[in-house]
Structure formats: C-alpha cells, structure tokens
Amino acid sequence: MIVLSLASTGSIAPTLLWCALFALAAAPGLVAPERAWPARIGWLAEVIVVAMAAATPPAEEAFVHPAFVLAYLAAPAFAVGAVAGRAELGALVGVTAVALVVAGALQDQLGSSSYGLAALEWTVLAGVAGVLGLAVQRLVRSRSDAVEPEFVQAARLLTQLRTIARQLPGGLDPGSLGDRLLEELNQVAATDRSAVLTGSGGGRLEVLTQRAPGRVAWETSFDAETPLADTWASQQPQVSNRTLDRAGPGTPVSVLVLPMITGVRTVGLVVLESDRTGAYPPAAVAEAVEVVGNAALRLETALLFDEVRGLATVEERQRLAREIHDGVAQELVMVGYGIDNAIADLPAESEAAESTLRLLRAEVTRVITELRLSLFELRSDVDRHGGLGSAIADYARTIGSSAGLRVHLSLDESTARLPAAVESELLRIAQEAVTNARKHAGAANLWVTCEVDPPFAQVEVSDDGKGLGRDRPEGRYGMTIMAERANRVRAELEIVPRAPKGTTVRVVLGGKSRQGTAS
C-alpha cells in the first residue's frame, strides 16, 4: 500500500495518512484473531477506507489514484472467501459496491471516468479474488476431511476402549471373556466339554478357550461336512448326535454348535458336547443362542483390541530395531574401526598399550554381537505360514550357532493354530529362556521342545549349564518377564533344575492329556 501511494502521489504525507487508516481498520482482527466478529468488522472497515481513498478528489493533497488504491480490495475479499464462506463473500462484494457508490457521490466522482471505470473493474476483480479464496478453503477442507477426522475418530474410540477395558471385570482379554461365556452356557445347558473357536483368517478356526477334563482334538477345518462347517456357512445353530472316541468306543454324544454373529459377520463358534443323547432340546438351544448373542459383540471387541495391540507391539519392536541398527550399532562399529586404526599406528615398543586396546576391541566386538542378536530377537516373529515351532526353531538355531551351542530340537505341531497373540507370547518366553542359557548358563547343549495341539501347547528349553544357583541375583534369568507373559495367556510357567545339571524352563498352556479325535 505504501509503494502504491507513493507511486500515485509522490508525497509522503498522504501515504502515511492512508496507511494509518488502513492499520486502524485492520486492528480489530489483529487484536482478537481467534474470534469471528472482530475480523468481520476489520474487513468492512478496510473496504470503507479503500472507498474513501479512491474517491478523494484530485485537487486534494490526500489524493491517490483510484486504480492504485482499489487494488487493495482483493485482500479482504480473498480473506473472506478463504475463511468465512460464500454468503459472507457476497455480502462483502455488495458492501464494496455500495461504499464505492456512496463515496463517489459524496465526493462528486461518479461522473469521473477514471473513478467509475476503476471502481467497476476492481469490484469485479474483488469478487474473483473471493472466489479464489473459496477454492482454497474447499481444497484445505477436503485434505483435512480426508485425514484428520479418521485420526480424531480413532483417538476417540481408543480412549473409550481403554476406559471400558479398565471397567470390565475381565478387561478386554479374549480368553477371559471366552471362559466367562462357557461358564454361562454351562448353567444353561449342562455340558461335558465345550470350546470357543474363532476365525483365523486362513480358512481355519483357532481354539480360543475350552472347558474339558483334558486335551480335546477339536475340529478346526471347514473342509469336511461337519456341524462346525454347516454352522459357519448358515449362521444357524446345529444340533447333532455323533459317535466320538473321546466319549468312549461307540458312545453317541450330543453336539450343539452355536454361531457368534455381529451384524452380518460370523466371529466364531461355540461348541458344546454332552455324553448323553438328547441333551439339547429346543428350549435349551434358544436360551444358549441368546447367551451367545449377548457375548458376541464383547468377544469381537476384545479380539479387535488384541489385534490392534499386537500390531502396535510389532511396529514398536521394528522401530526399536531400526533405531538400534541405524544408531548405536553403527556408532559401535565405527568405534571398533577407530581402535583398529589406533593399534595399527602404535609404535612397535608400545606392547602394554596394544594389549589394552586389543582387550577393548574384543569387548566392543562382543557388544556389537550382543546388539545384533538383540536386533534378531526384536525382528523375530511367528510367521502365519510357518507356525510357532518354526519360529522357535529358527531363533534357537541362530542363537546356538552364534554362541557355539549344540541345539537339539523336538517339534510336534498339529495343523491347527493358536491365536496369534498367544503364539507371540510363547515365542517371547522361549527367546528369553534361550537368551538366558546363552548369556548366563555357560552351557554346551541346548534342548528345545515345542508341542502345539490347540488349545494345548508346551514349550520347554533346557540347558546343561551351571544351573540356577542359590545366590543368583533376583531376576537374573528373566523369571519376572517370563512369568508376566505366561500369566497374560493364562499358561503355567516352571523354572526348575535339570538333572544332572542345568536348568529347564517349561511353559504349558491348556490341558495335560489328550482326548479323542476331531468333532
């Protein structure tokens, strides 16, 4: 504005006068920018000041050529379009036209071709500037609506979920909710064996939890024509009488399969078995359907929460691995190179200094090796195609090879899978046991056993090292960490001496003995 006024008048006094008036007009918006009305008042004041300056007669000292000062109309028009909206832009353009006409009439400038033509042109151009402001507003809002509301909604939902998880008796643990559901169903229809099966996403079912005196070989495949497959496909409860080995040779049992449905999606199945025929009359089935229907949404919420937590944990482990690899690990490698260079530059007679530096170089090499093994542990996870046994075996082989341990593996896995969260926790327990054997036991052999037959699983890690010892520091073998992980998946953890020497870490999930064949 100062440049335009100077170009028009060639004198400083009129320029300072109009600049002071423009500053006064913009003051309301500057004083309270977070409030709408001061900004609106400022825009109107700016339009009025522009009209007054443009209509100043040429004979007066404060005269500024209309073509120069009217260019300023584009600024408030663009601001209104970008911030306010279409209606307020139309109102501002209307006020601009009225102000220019009134100011021109008061100063007898309406008949002047220079004023009238410039006023018409810049009123139209102000409208164009306002339309551009509307386009900018629309673009900003479209980008904001495409991203931010999703994060806002996600944050709101996660906050609510955290609150609910703290208030619920069993939290949002799928296994605990499954146990409660089976307990409620047992009061509705007496059962000898029952289980909650959830979809794994690979065309199979996972045994989430069960109530049985021992291990039961639950059917988890949809390939055969079974009540489970029929229930999953039809979303209707199925009652059948079947002969199952686990009930005794040739003994028919009653089987009730109930779908867990949320909306139009099947979340999982509940299987109830009774060793007496006719155990599930229509009245009992209807009551059981109601109980399962009330629990389906709670269980799906817990499963989703567990999946989100698992994804967040994996992402955090990968992030830590990247930071360690790109940060501390690289810096230690450079330190090692620096020590090598220092040894090479030592004079021949500096034997003591060389010995010290070589010891330091060996220690740096050891720390780098530990970091690399830690990175491997952070990046290790259960492959959805390989299974828990494969993940534990890969880890034990790698660690054993790096530590000079002879690894003895024994793997016995069924085609059924444990829930992903359970597999992950069992893998971490095995990793902790193997790492402790490598770091502290001084062992020569490592025996790793993994048996998976959902819902049963047993992982055992033994070594022939120096054993636990009576004076070991508390937590040296990571017992607290392993106990917390085992408790999270409701498994039993044992850490006992191994005969004739060494230590055995054993984690057992589910029953002790197996019963029968698939239902």
Briefly summarize what is shown:
GO terms for molecular function: phosphorelay sensor kinase activity; protein dimerization activity. 58% of the residues lie in helices and 16% in strands. The protein contains 14 helices and 12 strands.
Q: Would you write up a description of this structure?
A:
The protein has 519 residues and is of the alpha+beta class. It has three domains: 145 residues; 144 residues, Beta-Lactamase (2-Layer Sandwich), CATH 3.30.450.40; 131 residues, Heat Shock Protein 90, CATH 3.30.565. Helices cover 58% and strands 16% of the residues. The protein is built from 14 helices and twelve strands. A five-stranded antiparallel beta sheet has the order 2-1-6-5-4, with helices on both faces. It has a five-stranded mixed beta sheet with strand order 7-8-9-11-10, covered by helices on one side. The protein has a two-stranded parallel ribbon with strand order 3-12. Helix 3 packs antiparallel against helix 5 and helix 3 packs parallel to helix 6. Keywords: Kinase, Membrane, Transferase, Transmembrane, Transmembrane helix, Two-component regulatory system.
- N-to-C SSE string, H for helix and E for strand: HHHHHHHHEEEHEEEHHHEHEEHEEE
Count of discrete alpha- or pi-helical segments spanning 4 or more residues: 14
Based on DSSP secondary structure assignment, what is the total number of beta strands? 12
Strand proportion = 15-25%
Distance between the termini: 86 Å
Shape: flat
Most strands sheet? 5 strands, antiparallel
Total domain units: 3
The low-confidence runs, each spanning 5 or more residues with pLDDT under 50, are 6-10, 513-519
Rg calculated over all Cα atoms: 39 Å
Which class do the helix and strand fractions yield?
alpha+beta
- Major sheet strand order: 2-1-6-5-4
